Amino acid sequence: MAPGAQFAAKRLGKELTKISKGLPAGIVLVQGDNFEEWLLDIQVLDSNPLYMGQTYRLKFKFGSSYPIEPPEVVFVKLPDRPIPIHPHIYSNGIICLDLLGQQGWSPVQNVESVCMSLQSMLTGNTKNERPPGDEEFVRGNRLRPKDIDFYYHDNNV
Amino acid sequence: MPPPNTPEEGVPAAVSSPPARARRSARNASISSVAATIGSETQGICVGSVGDLSSRTRPCVLPINYQELRYESEVDKSLECPICRTPFSVPITTKPCGHTFCSVCLLRAHQMRPVCPIDRRPLDIDRDFCKARVIHDQLDRLRVKCPSQGCDYVCPRELLAVHYERYCEGTPVPCPDNSCDLWIARHDATPDKGCLHKYTPCQYCSKQVMKAALEEHYDRECSGNTVKCAECDVDVVQHRMESHVVNDCPSTVVSCKWSSYGCGKKAPRRDIWAHEKKPCVYQAIGRLVKDREEDRLIISELRARLSTVEGRLRMSEKEKTERKERKRRQASSNVDNTENTIPAFVPDLNLSNSPRAAASYNNGTWDSPEDYMLAQFERMETQMEDLRKNIHELDGLHSMRLLNDTMRLNEQIAELGSKVGVIGMHTTWLMNVQRQSRGQQRAVGGVGSPLGAFASSSGGSGATSGATAGGVSDTLRNAPDNEGGRYYSSNMPPRRNSDGRGENPPRL
Q1: Residue A115 catalytic?
Q2: What is the pLDDT of residue B342?
Q3: Which of A78, B257, B353, B370 has a CA positioned 20 to 30 A from the CA of residue B318?
Q4: What is the 3-state secondary structure (H, E, C) of B75-123?
Q5: How many helices (H) and strands (E) does chain B have?
Q6: At residue B200, what are phi and psi to the nearest 5 degrees?
Q7: For the UBC core domain, which residue ranges apply (chain A) (predicted)?
Q8: pLDDT exceeds 60 at position B200
Q9: Residues in chain B whose beta carbon is closer than 8 A to a beta carbon of chain A?
Q10: What is the ipTM of this complex?
């Protein structure tokens, strides 16, 4: 086990016990039986026409230095779980959010707070569009989300 | 080895004061050194993350991992580190924003980004942290379970280290075999047992198992060691067979639970169960006897309490009558005969063979020697208390007086010191003047001018600045001593010895 892995496992264990006591509305833990990858479902609860009635699947991947380093968070596409349409979410599920980058992440964040941030990011959106250059990016990208050098320019959504 | 709670004193110092040079040259190096310092001083909290300290110098017990402790009751959320979500270990607070974290957690986060994890304010590792004393005290009071395997000890957190390091039998200590670098519970770490980390094949399932884990293996995973009990046809772990036969097996012949109350039935356990359920006729008697025994215990306890209360009551009554009698006697005649009136209240250290003591309780003043002793004892206790108070008072008075005296003396000494300094300066000045005049005489006599010039120049400097004058005069006089009191040492005898203690210092 890597030196930090114990630390990460311990912290995730704590989060798991807290999650088992209850999560905010619209967030459900689907799978959390190991300390490497968790699946969660999120829903947007208000009447935003873009996301109403939809459920989205999130995949969290935790490195051995979690929570010092951010987890890798992407939307997963399944038959009944689409990728939400949003100017910062690519159609392959990769999310451009400074909170999930090396610079915006803080070790006091946790799975629950990330889910809530994504919920509010969707709630506040009114543009029915993908990020610019989505098609080329999806076609050409072979990098892991954490290695992509995003440029966080848009502070509106 | 210092307990993990105390060396935290050293943490902020380490955080705040690496030498300035190191601070400028290599920031990362200084951070890691701080982390290492904290790691070693707190017995390696989260040793793995701090660096492999354990391999370099092996402590005599496995360090406590404070982030893995289990607490007796739920810990207040405000005492949890927002990074690791466990009660703080070595809490430190950021100075600009006042957020508290475990030192290890914060240092790890700081290495990633030098900002506060909560509000992202930039933080300087050398300046912006201080220890969180109040939180530390609160943490010390949390009741925590001993981390050793198989130990149920619960204590306040600050005392855990002592129990864990000194007394707990389950504490992991280095394996007695020097070539083995694993840990073993203290009760298993005996030289005659040897290294228990060697793998041996399990005698039942021939799986390779560490010797230390053999018991656990039998109970949990070993598949080949269960055998059928010959009597009751149940699968039993082989090395538990003995206890099964004695305690559980329904075919073992045992006697009835109430046998001590007269039931003579002996049968296999399953019949006995049925017999006891039926129920056994002796059950009623047994219960009755048990209850009676309990009652008897309570009664004897109550009786003991009653007798002490009675004794005390009698004592106070006696005291009252004694007092009355004394008053009456004093009123009627002024004959002083205390020896006979209050024999019981004279403290007598030699009780055992004192005829007076024996007489005093035999002639009816006291019912029993115990009462008499008790009275004496209480009396002595009050006397002791009085003495203690007196001593305290005296002590206070004494120290007051001492302080007053020494203060006066100190003042005088300081005054004397300053006066001596002034004398020294005067002496230097005088000597310089003398030397100067001598030089001038020589110059007038037409001998050598350079020496005179030197003397005059040095004399000038000595006279102008009082502070350097002492040093210059010292070198000139070859008396290397900076103490003011020694200025008139060799060539000038002291003008006056002040020997009267209360008298004022000599006036200049």
Answers
A1: no
A2: 47
A3: B353
A4: CCHHHECCCCCCECCCEEEECCCCCEEEHHHHHHHHHHCCECCCCCCEC
A5: 17, 13
A6: -130, 150
A7: 7-157
A8: yes
A9: 46, 48-49, 67-68, 82-86, 105, 108-109, 111-113, 117-118, 120
A10: 0.78
Amino acid, single-letter form, for residue B94: T
Of these residues, A19, A96, A97, A99, which one is catalytic?
Answer: A96
Considering only CB atoms, B118 lies closest to which of A6, A68, A108, namely A108
Query: Which two structure tokens, joined as six digits, stand for B232?
Result: 């009751």
All structural domains of chain A with their residue ranges: 3-152
Mean pLDDT of chain A: 86
Rounded mean pLDDT of chain B?
73
Strands (DSSP E) along B103-207, which ranges? 129-131, 143-145, 154-156, 172-174, 183-185, 199-201
Prediction pTM value = 0.48
**Structure tokens that stand for B426 in this block:** 């005067």
Q: Which residue numbers of A have CB closer than 8 Å to B's CBs?
A: 3-4, 6-7, 10-11, 14-15, 18, 67-69, 102-103, 106-108, 110
CATH superfamily, region B18-170: Zinc/RING finger domain, C3HC4 (zinc finger) (3.30.40.10)
pLDDT tens figures, B417-431: 999 999 999 999 999
| Cα–Cα dist B335/B330, whole Å | 7
The answer to whether the peptide bond before residue B2 is cis (omega within 30 degrees of 0) is no
Superfamily of domain A3-152 in CATH is Ubiquitin Conjugating Enzyme (3.10.110.10)
- The mean-pLDDT minimum among A98-102, A137-141, B12-16 falls in B12-16
CB B276 within 8 A of CB B283: yes
- Token pair for A108: 């006091």
Instruction: Give B28's Cβ-side CA count (13 Å radius).
Output: 3
Residue B169 confidence (pLDDT) above 90: no
